[in-house]
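Lecture notes, continued. The same structure-token format from the folding unit now serves as the input rather than the output. Read the line below as a description of shape only.
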């Protein structure tokens, strides 16, 4: 394979052959193609796109770059995956909820990067919780508990780990075929049979406009099907953070609140919708509506919370933190953020809110950065709500005194206020199956 010829072919808008894509990924994973040549190719893909055949081929090559879990001893498995957002803690709710309804859920997730949070960081804020399990442990736990919640390992789709890190520093993250191959290579290597995709749209999503998110959702569903998976996607709003909590322990506490039948309405609603789609995909309910009813029942009667406690216990986390969330350590600095103007919240730059949370210590700019589990933001006012003089819109939590002023300025600049009340955007705007 001649990498220069491949770069030129893609630069000139031509289609790459399956064997070229396979060799490219194998050689890049092995370290024989340098980052500067792969960066050039990624930019050519970013600019010229890929056909569906090329995207499927790339997904397969990335999936085969490492170990593929064999979950056949478990039976039928269903997972959910979000394209990434701010305050998106639904995995912590949906996975135990779906398992409490008899589904087998082998969920595998990454750490937060850039403005988005990561489920792995959230779960690791529970003392002792193990996010790394061996394949026999995964299979055993799926058979006994019904769910595993684990981090992507070095062995699963290693090509994505390298490619994502490179995309992150070369301005090539927001590419529909590259996002599709990145997500589906990991999910296919994880071995799930069916997948519900929560495709975020709006200022806090990778694809900020509805048309781009819609295109991403359709491509994810069609490539997942080509890879032999049953799949559905919902387009959900990232025009504002999901729920009120942004930051690792804050989000775990909010998830427990939702699992207790309380918590913000949007987090509850999206969790029920995603779970109902998982039940429908698995064929355990006849209609989506029946799935919604069963999901609401198991959320309200405590079954889902009991299942989370079971998962945490089996994965060696300290369950007393689930039973008494007030045990989580709070950040020493807590400060309210007040806007200079009054009126109704008419819009939010959710990306900037995610970046402010990072500055406070909740996230990382590089994979090697440490996160502060207690750092984050509580969002008191959402789009359509009125703000009176002196009322806080956010409360920040941090150990980093030196970052407070910049984070507060970011948060104030991230909120638009109008004299007239604005209708909030719909939580879920579309379902693609
Ligand atoms: N999530 C992923 O796993 N990959 C992307 O490229 C974007 C979001």
């Amino acid at each position: 394979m001649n990498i220069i010829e491949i770069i030129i072919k893609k630069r000139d808008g031509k289609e790459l052959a399956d064997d070229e894509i396979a060799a490219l990924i194998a050689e890049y994973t092995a370290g024989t193609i340098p980052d500067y040549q792969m960066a050039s190719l990624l930019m050519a893909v970013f600019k010229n796109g890929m056909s569906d055949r090329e995207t499927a081929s790339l997904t397969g090559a990335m999936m085969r770059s490492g170990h593929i879990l064999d979950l056949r001893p478990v039976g039928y498995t269903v997972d959910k995956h979000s394209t990434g957002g701010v305050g998106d803690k639904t995995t912590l709710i949906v996975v135990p909820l779906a398992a409490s309804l008899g589904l087998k859920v082998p969920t595998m997730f990454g750490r937060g990067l850039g403005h988005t949070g990561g489920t792995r960081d959230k779960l690791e804020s529970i003392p002792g919780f193990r996010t790394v399990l061996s394949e026999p442990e995964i299979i055993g736990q799926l058979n006994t508990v019904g769910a595993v919640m684990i981090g992507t390992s070095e062995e699963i789709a290693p090509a994505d780990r390298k490619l994502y890190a490179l995309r992150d520093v070369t301005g090539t993250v927001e590419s529909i075929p590259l996002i599709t191959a990145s997500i589906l290579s990991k999910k296919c290597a994880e071995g799930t049979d069916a997948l519900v995709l929560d495709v975020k749209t709006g200022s806090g999503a990778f694809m900020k406009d509805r048309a781009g998110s819609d295109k991403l959702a359709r491509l994810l569903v069609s490539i997942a099907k080509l890879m032999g998976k049953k799949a559905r996607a919902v387009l959900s709003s990232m025009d504002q953070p999901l729920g009120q909590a942004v930051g690792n322990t804050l989000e775990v506490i909010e998830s427990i609140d939702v699992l207790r039948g309380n918590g913000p309405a949007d987090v509850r609603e999206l969790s029920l919708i995603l779970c109902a789609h998982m039940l429908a995909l698995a064929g355990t309910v006849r209609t989506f509506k029946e799935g919604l009813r069963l999901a609401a029942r198991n959320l309200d009667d405590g079954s889902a919370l009991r299942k989370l406690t079971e998962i945490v216990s089996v994965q060696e986390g300290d369950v007393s933190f689930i039973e008494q969330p007030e045990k989580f350590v709070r950040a020493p600095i807590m400060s309210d953020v007040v806007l200079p103007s009054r009126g109704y919240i008419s819009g939010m730059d959710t990306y900037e809110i995610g970046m402010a949370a990072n500055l406070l210590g909740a996230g990382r700019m590089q994979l090697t950065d440490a996160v502060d589990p207690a750092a984050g933001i509580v969002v008191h006012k959402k789009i359509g709500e009125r703000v009176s003089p002196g009322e806080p819109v956010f409360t920040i939590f941090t150990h980093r005194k030196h970052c407070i002023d910049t984070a507060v300025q970011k948060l104030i600049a991230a909120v638009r206020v109008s004299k007239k009340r604005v209708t909030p955007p719909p939580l879920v705007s579309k379902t693609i199956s």
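Point for the exam: The first helix runs from residue 3 to 11.
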